[in-house]
Input
Amino acid sequence: MNPFSYVTATDPAEARSLAAEGAKYLAGGTNLVDLMREGIETPERLVDIGRLPLAGIEDLPGGGLRLGALARNTRVAADRRVRDRYPLLSQAIVNGASPQLRNRATVGGNLLQRTRCGYFYDRHSACNKREPGAGCDALDGFNRMHAVLGAGESCVAVHPSDMCVALAALDAVVNIAGRDPVPLVDFHLLPGDTPHVETVLRPGELVTSIDLPPAPPGHSVYLKVRDRASYAFALVSVAVFTHLEEGRASRVRIALGGVAAKPWRAYEAERLLAGTSLDDHLIDQAAELALADARPREHNAFKPELARRLIRRALKGALS
Output
């Protein structure tokens, strides 16, 4: 591990002033510390933000809910307001990691965790995300876990979060100190020519909380397919929310995980289903439309069909 300095911050303004170029914020550390052990992250300074007053879960005027960036995943998943009003989020968090990790991991850390691509973690492999301009060994390597949507020739890594897939379906908003809130669906970036730039955050910026809008009545389902039941990362996951009025869908949200560098909203499929009775034929059409632009590689050609089946199952489950 490379030498680094360690400082603690007592308020958000101090944290931002301490987070100079080459610094990283430390909260739960469940991802950052691993990356430092592997030599992937080599910060010159760690700014410990664990003492900042950002761990609360607060009701918002109008019926929404604010999740502090330092709220532990276990606390969020178990909160009665989350379980009653946003069960989709609770389901996703519980599916995301073991209890030990959830007890330590934070909302902000989950949002900002980095890809689990094996080539990213291997310093001897070419990885544009780790070293811009180096190339991407995953393109022609073992790419079973990799992206089928929104990827290019620079990077095919996927974002590993379960929580963020649910937040995308719930129209969550990310609050950042010193700037306007950012919709979660716009917070993470597709790789393009700069796969090392993963979010809209600028150096030193600090996520303070995530806001959930008032929860409309409806039904939600979170489904995740993984190689083993014991807290593996998703091959494909789907978060679905539906609300019907007089037998027709007044609100449909479909978000996918494990298929792109960010939580993937299936907007065209949502538009197709809006205002309809969500019959089997339309659900099949929506599933096809959601994966119409999929571009699988050698080892993940199964992912588009797997995603289609999960979308069908989740929508029918929400309806039932």
The domain at 221-319 is CATH 3.30.390.50 (Enolase-like; domain 1).
